[in-house]
Amino acid sequence: MQKPNGIKWFFVLALAAAFVGICAGADSPAKPVDDKALKNAGKNADEWLTNGHDLGDQRYSPLKQIDTSNASRLGLAWYYDTGSSAGTVETTPIIVNGTMYGTATWGLVYALDARTGQQKWTWDPKVGHQNFPPGSSGKPDRQRTGPSMCCGPANRGVAFYEGKVIVGTPDAHLVALDAETGKIIWDTPTADPDADYSITGAPIIAKGKVIIGNGGGEYAVRGYVSAYDANTGKMVWRFYTVPGDPSKPFENKAMEMAAKTWNGEWWKLGGGGNAWDGISYDPDLNLVYFGTGQGGPWVIKYRSTGDNLFVCSIMAVNADTGEYVWHFQTTPGDEWDYDAVPGLTLADLKINGKTRKVLMQAPKNGFFYVLDRKTGEFISGKPYVNVTWATGLDPKTGRPIEAQNMHYDDKNVTAAPGPAGGHVWQGMSYNPATGLVYLPALDSTFLYVSASTFKPEVGAYNWGIVFRPPPPPAPGQAAQLPIPPGGSLVAWDPVTQTERWRLKQMNGGGTVTTAGGVVFAESSDGDIKALSADKGAELWSAKLQAGMGNPATYMLDGKQYVSILSGRQGKARIYTFALDAKEPMPGPPAAAPPPPPPPAGVAPAAPTQQNQQ
């Protein structure tokens, strides 16, 4: 049955008793999503309350109705066309009290009935684009004039807190919407409107505060992370990730310490270090964790020699005050765009006979890190993709042992991974039953060439590099071509730092794992698959569209669902699956109108960047 609004659905249960149960569930009072609920979100099998399911970003669900014995019976329950503009879809759906909240490109927010896909409301920030879904005004009223975006208008999702849906926008606003109506409760700019900042990441809640970073490192701005009161939108604290002008008082002792690792006049361009993606929170330790991006510009001679704290670092700050607690720098003096921004997964692991509270991350530099999340102490690290820029990590400190001749300020250098990184925003998940992390990984190389001259410009890529193909081989020599990009899904043992299994062409999006012994993941060419968590055996698949976000799973009225946003070029859909559901898979969605030219200040996506900022 096709409704005029373009949503197609059916009732999975047709028995009268089941129908009564559905109605009763719909009328039951809404459960509050407060600090207590978020702290216990990992135990909540029915809902998906925060971007990583729990505040520690494990992306693990206790649900086990769908398991290895019956996953082959999955079918389409409903789908919803977002009608969004072109761009990469990267959201994780949030499911609260029977409603699904998610984002499309350009920060568009939608609220759907999680049983049927029926649209409840949509909200569009109306920032610099002209393609809107049904129900929106269709007329931009807050044009993008200053900020720039590196790699397209992606958005990775919302936070939910006490009846509010909170989202970041492409022009670096943080907006709280009424969860029932989609109406604005508060709207707070998080950056100077004429600066090159944007928000593409999902916020997280820590003790009633909304924590968010920003993008902009490609434009050499100064990165920071901020906390805002979830009820008022008023800023509570801000932590800068790189030091400012040393002739002025430092904001705190951490910035004074960091400034000793910089030299020259780096602050005139900003320095970079933007925290544009992963944020986690440990309520027991009261620590907020976030990762930072590369320095700006990329090329050291145009920025500063030294380690350049805190670029490419994992940071821990006090949730109440934003005060520095510890840091671990994955790539000191980064010159290869090795952001340490991917998701930060918190878990308790038994290592050498002792249970330790750890933080795990697979950043772009190609090494998988396990750190003590209380202190930041390095525990272990090993490469999970091909790595040529370093020969290993110091076993005591975790500092990379750089390979010779990997800096390119006076010569061209080919390094692996390339700027696309071994792993970026795609959600990795951790299953405590198997002890494995499920990691979408990418092998790639890149020829780094420093620009002979560099003149920074507002609204332009301030990298200090140039793009060029590899040089032709010398007479009589075979061409040395870079390794072509190749994506894999890797089952990684974080205790032994070893690969358990690897599936090729399986990094189309993020992952979710469940107590049913299943991993949901996406192929590089548009299939969503259910795999056995122990061996990676394929249990089920469905053909969608290339380009997917992160899946989520939830239960309503006794039935487990799995949802994912899929698509590109303005043809994105939310697909939702359940056992024994038999809705026919739809044909390709109608193409969206061609996007308008980029507004002032918006650069086209970089040809060598993949799914960033």
Question: Strands, helices and their partners?
Answer:
Elements: E1 8-9, H1 16-27, H2 35-39, E2 60-61, E3 74-81, E4 94-96, E5 99-103, E6 109-113, E7 119-123, E8 159-161, E9 164-168, E10 173-178, E11 184-189, E12 204-206, E13 209-212, E14 224-229, E15 235-240, H3 253-259, E16 279-282, E17 287-291, E18 313-318, E19 324-329, E20 345-351, E21 354-361, E22 367-372, E23 378-383, E24 390-393, E25 400-402, E26 413-415, E27 429-431, E28 436-443, E29 446-450, E30 465-466, E31 486-493, E32 498-504, E33 512-514, E34 518-522, E35 527-532, E36 538-543, E37 552-556, E38 559-566, E39 573-579
Parallel strand pairs: 2-33
Antiparallel strand pairs: 1-3, 3-39, 4-5, 5-6, 6-7, 8-9, 9-10, 10-11, 12-13, 13-14, 14-15, 16-17, 17-18, 18-19, 20-21, 21-22, 22-23, 24-25, 26-29, 27-28, 28-31, 29-30, 31-32, 33-34, 34-35, 35-36, 37-38, 38-39
Model description:
By secondary structure, this protein is mostly beta strands. 4% of the residues lie in helices and 33% in strands. Strand 9 (164-168) and strand 10 (173-178) form a beta hairpin. It is globular. The two termini are 39 Å apart. Mean pLDDT is 88; it is low at 1-27, 130-141, 479-483 and 598-611.
